[in-house]
Design goal:
The structure is a single chain. The chain has 2 domains: 148 residues, D-Maltodextrin-Binding Protein, domain 2 (3-Layer(aba) Sandwich), CATH 3.40.190.10; 148 residues, Periplasmic binding protein-like II (D-Maltodextrin-Binding Protein, domain 2, 3-Layer(aba) Sandwich). Strands 1, 2, 3, 4, 5, 6, 7, 8, 9, 10 and 11 form an 11-stranded mixed β-sheet that branches. It has 15 helices and 11 strands. It binds fe (iii) ion. Belongs to the bacterial solute-binding protein 1 family.
Amino acid sequence: MTAKKALLAGLALSTLGSVAQAAEEVNIYSYRQEFLIKPLLEAFTAETGIKANVIFSKKGLLERLEHEGANSPADVILTSDIGPLHDAVERDLVAPIDSDVIDANVPAHYRSKEDKWVGLTARSRIIYASKDRVEPGEIKTYEELADPKWKGRICTRSGKHSYNLSLIGSLIEHNGAEQAEQWLAAVKDNLARNPQGNDRAQVKAVKEGQCDLALGNTYYYGKMLTNEKEPEQVEWAKSVNLVFPNQDDRGAHMSISGAALAKHAPHPEAAIKLIEFLTSEKAQKMYAEVNFEFPVRPGIEWSGLLKEHMGEFKADEVNLGDVVKHRAEASRLVDKVGFDN
Ligand code: FE
């Protein structure tokens, strides 16, 4: 390690675990939250003896990597969504991950075709439907959100949010840009209010009768249903049925949280060991239990809440790289139809 790198690492990276004289270490820039990542890194250090240093931040980590360039101490980038992984690739901040272990543990559709990122947890973007005002089976597909019967009945966060850009990207991939644009314009016409708030705020709006259908990621259901700090969220969750769309054709749109290897990683071997660990049975189980996400690795038992409320559903197995490549186009369509205005 150069003096500059040591200085940066020493100043900014806090060490987890208590391995006194670890021979190896790995530096992580994490957009994922501490409550989720810290126990995983502790388990990694316990298993491998590799010291894990981490910076948690909600934003600016890619900018930091870009600024640090070849002097960056970062080895691994952890993100809570596919969007920043795609950004990191576009900005030339990552190196390919060469690992047979990861290839065996993670299905190909959750990995970059060029090995530039790998999914660690999966979630679906589903329709939350009012129990009172929407019959089970009344809406079955994303495409049906465009039906005029839903006029004034749909709530969503901004079309520009990463989660919605991925969903729109999947519609571009499956149906073509022209149909995706018509769909987006029609969904806009069906909105109960201008896009605003986060995913949970839409379910709250369903509970309060402002709309009948909302778009949201699956894990928020678990987070609402078990929310002891804000018990009203339990009521929001109880007011809706979960609709996994497109079960009779391609399956529900999926996205991931994931990891990438930093282009100038000073410890590439330890970095790959960490990413491999995060795809291990042990880590995959921990992820799913703490945050109500789906393990990407097949054969891992789901947490009780997921099994009870989500059961088996058909997931879209299109390669996420083919979805994420449409993000710029998706963003352009959001502007073009004035979705957020
Ligand atoms: Fe989220």
